[in-house]
Amino acid sequence: MDLQTEEKIPAERSKSERKDGRPLHGKVAIITGSTSGIGLGIATAFAKAGASVVLNGLGDHDAVEKTRKSLARNQGVDVQYHAANMENPDDIADMVAFAHKTYGRVDILVNNAGIQHTARVEDFPAEKWNQIIAINLSAAFHSMKAAVPKMREGGFGRIINIASVHGLVASVEKAAYVAAKHGIVGLTKVVALENAENGITANAICPGWVRTPLVEKQIVALSEKLGISIEEASVKLLEEKQPSKRFVEVEQIGEMAVFLAGSAASNITGQTMVMDGGWVAR
Predict the structure, then answer these.
(1) What is the pLDDT of residue 9?
(2) Would the pLDDT of 198 be above 90?
(3) What gap in Å lies between CA 209 and CA 200, rounded to an integer?
(4) What's the CA gap between 261 and 31, in Å, rounded?
(5) How confident is the model at residue 19 (pLDDT cuts 50, 70, 90)?
(6) Contact, 15 vs 43, CB < 8 A?
(7) Is the dihedral of CA 103, 202, 117, 279 positive or negative?
(8) CB atoms within 10 A of CB 265
(9) Hey, which CATH number is domain 24-208+249-277, 3.90.180.10, 3.40.50.620, 3.40.50.12500, 3.40.50.720?
(10) Phi, psi of 105 (to 5 degrees)
(11) Tens digit of pLDDT for each residue in 86-104?
């Protein structure tokens, strides 16, 4: 489903058109997996900062449309949606082409789409391994492959890959997720080096525990496994890994992404921005 553009944004903005003072006014951002959770938080932060946004992700058509319209109305920016399947390279290329055709530019790409499955290596279903690698890692490769040439055309680009603390350290029963997130961190560095002189930066954000629908499932599973309440399971989950004993907030990740997309971060590239409450400091 490609929603039709209500207003096209010119490729270049005059200084008078930037007078609203928002740091990303006139920029165009694609955020994968942005109909809920971290992705929606980042999309909201970009819209607040003045960027036009292309949403992507799962969800009922009416619910997605309601989210799109609400974000556009509340923040006064243009918001579109593309239903690219992150397992399909052609869909991903079409999403980038859609953004470029709609706005005449692609400035910011946030690779956020991700799924999870937990099991020991010997019990890990091959189809789950393939799906996680496809969505959590290969999709980022395909989207960057499509977006980087568009960014070079404009002489500006910000690639922000949502990795994880699991891109730096491991946990049991998360073979595919840990492999994919380690891969994202390495891939980010390669793209950063390849474009260091092109006005394009590539960085990864590595959150610890964030209370998203994905993590909520793990909390419920822990609660059922140990026979404890959801609240007790939440505390136990945090105590094991995250010294701050506080979940990272979606809004905090959004603010970090806005910073990395802005002018102050023009010479920050190939980096991992760790937001983990002290997890990897142990």
Answers:
(1) 39
(2) yes
(3) 29
(4) 12
(5) low
(6) no
(7) negative
(8) 18
(9) 3.40.50.720
(10) -165, 160
(11) 999 999 999 999 999 999 9
Q: What is the DSSP string of 41-97?
A: HHHHHHHHTT-EEEE---S-HHHHHHHHHHHHHHHTS-EEEB---TT-HHHHHHHHH
Strand partners, 265: none
Alpha-carbon distance values, 94 to 147, 238, 253 (Å): 11, 39, 27
Whether the pTM exceeds 0.70: the reply is yes
Catalytic residue selected from 46, 177, 209, 247 = 177
Joined together, the tokens standing for residue 45 give 């932060």
* Residues 266, 200: Cα–Cα separation, whole Å: 8
Per-residue pLDDT tens over the stretch 112-155? 999 999 999 999 999 999 999 999 999 999 999 999 999 999 99
Residue bearing tokens 């690779």: 111
Residue 14: how many other CB atoms lie within 10 Å: 9
Domain ranges of the chain: 24-208+249-277, 211-247
Strand order in the sheet with 157-162: 79-81, 52-55, 28-31, 108-111, 157-162, 200-207, 272-275
The reply to whether 81 belongs to the active site is: no
pLDDT tops 90 at residue 277: yes
- The answer to whether the CB of 168 falls within 8 A of the CB of 280 is yes
Give the separation between CA 143 and CA 168, rounded to whole angstroms: 23
d(CA 133, CA 179): 8
